[in-house]
Amino acid sequence: MNTLTSPKEQTTAPAAAHASRRSLLKRPRRLWEVTGPLVIFAVMLAIVSALTPTFLASNGLTFIAAAAAPILLLALGQALVLNIGSIDLSNAAIAVLGAIVLAFMLAPFAAAAPLLVLLIVTAFGVVNGLLVAYAQVPSFALTLGTLGIFQAAALVLSNSTTVYVSANGEAISALYQSGILGIPMTFWVGVVLAVALWVMLRYTRLGLSMTAIGNNESGAIFSAVRNRRVKVIVFALSGFTAGLASIAIIAQSGSASATGSGGDLLLPAITAAILGGTSISGGVVNPINVVFGALTVALVPIATTAIGVDAQAQNLVYGLVIIVVVALTMARTRGAIVK
């Protein structure tokens, strides 16, 4: 006995099958988005351990985490800015300037110095946000300009020399000298912050508004998202994380320089954010994965040395990583507006 199907059923059946196939294709991609940064770090660590058998036995993980700490803190702020479809080219320069200011302020202000520096650099981020949100200056052009301003300020303030902490640096240095499971507290601060930002992005109105702006700013505005206020908050958070990076720099080296420690953090921080799965088109971010992105970036110099690549080629490696990962990111968000 033949069964008859209605025209509607004939139309919807292929559509349902097509949707099912698309769902199956998306599953590996979603799995990669969740586990990719961890897998990349694990593979690189395995390669380094195989080429340098004494690496893990000689506190190699402690060294990686210490190197990753300021990169991670900057990358978390950068990831938030990228999530709204913007970029902050100035946050690494803010961190260096903040470290110089902190080195000067620790002697006269003691325990209050880190708090004052956090307020100052957060204010720098607020200014960036106000100019992007209300003056409608494109974030790339604006932060490229403020990058130069903050770098010049750091050079003038430090007189182009290294500024050492002269007093009251014990509490700051303890963040590096103490730790959990052999990992410095400077890194654990970044891990706690990453978890807090993950919760904010997924379970608060502010976090959902950030992602909405990155996905479709016009749609977010029609949905009553106060986009200008959100942008100011995001850039303020980028400034705040730069302040935390300032503290990490001082904790680890006891000094700051406009051309020394911390002066080359911009490219690694952006790389770490992208390696952590952050989309440069906005709307896709996972702060916890940024942790593994920062660890991978910190491992790159060690890996390049282990395989015999000259240290001068490290920026080439960073650049190649950015190109490859951006290409993968764009495939994931194909059809989105590139900002």
Characterization of the model:
The radius of gyration is 22 Å and the shape is globular. The chain contains 13 helices and four strands. Helix 1 (7-51) crosses helix 12 (287-306), helix 2 (60-83) crosses helix 12 and helix 3 (91-109) runs parallel beside helix 5 (139-158). The strands form two sheets. A two-stranded antiparallel ribbon has the order 1-4. Strands 2-3 form a two-stranded antiparallel sheet. With 339 residues, it is mainly alpha-helical.
What is the element layout, followed by pairings?
Elements: H1 7-51, H2 60-83, H3 91-109, H4 112-133, H5 139-158, E1 163-164, H6 170-177, E2 179-180, E3 183-184, H7 185-203, H8 205-215, H9 217-222, H10 227-253, E4 255-256, H11 266-275, H12 287-306, H13 314-332
Antiparallel strand pairs: 1-4, 2-3
Helix pairs in contact: 1-12, 2-7, 2-10, 2-11, 2-12, 3-4, 3-5, 3-10, 4-10, 6-10, 7-8, 7-12, 8-10, 11-12, 11-13
